[in-house]
Write a sequence for this structure.
């Protein structure tokens, strides 16, 4: 069974735009937070990530010259920002798991 047929069997959730956008923003942010937190303090990385994500979603993406047709609505920006915030949380948890594992000699 392919991934697409599995999502289709679950319902249309896997093919909806907000679902795909949320996951793309979430896992991108998780990767960035986990990777950057090896060189910078975690609080700086998460804070900067959320500020930059908010600026991109609520300022840039709502400009008609930045987004192509159809224009992004405020609800779309909110879904994307929540994806970024969730990714920051996932990346932070992953950072602590890696830190705990390496500092205790478990990894």
């Amino acid at each position: 069974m392919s991934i697409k047929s599995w999502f289709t069997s679950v319902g249309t959730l896997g093919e909806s735009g907000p679902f795909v956008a949320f996951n793309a923003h979430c896992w991108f942010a998780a990767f960035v937070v986990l990777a950057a937190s090896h060189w910078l303090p975690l609080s700086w990385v998460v804070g900067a990530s959320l500020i930059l994500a908010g600026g991109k979603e609520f300022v840039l993406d709502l400009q008609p010259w930045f987004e192509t047709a159809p224009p992004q609505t405020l609800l779309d920006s909110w879904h994307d920002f929540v994806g970024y915030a969730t990714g920051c949380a996932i990346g932070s948890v992953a950072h602590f798991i890696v830190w705990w594992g390496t500092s205790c000699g478990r990894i």
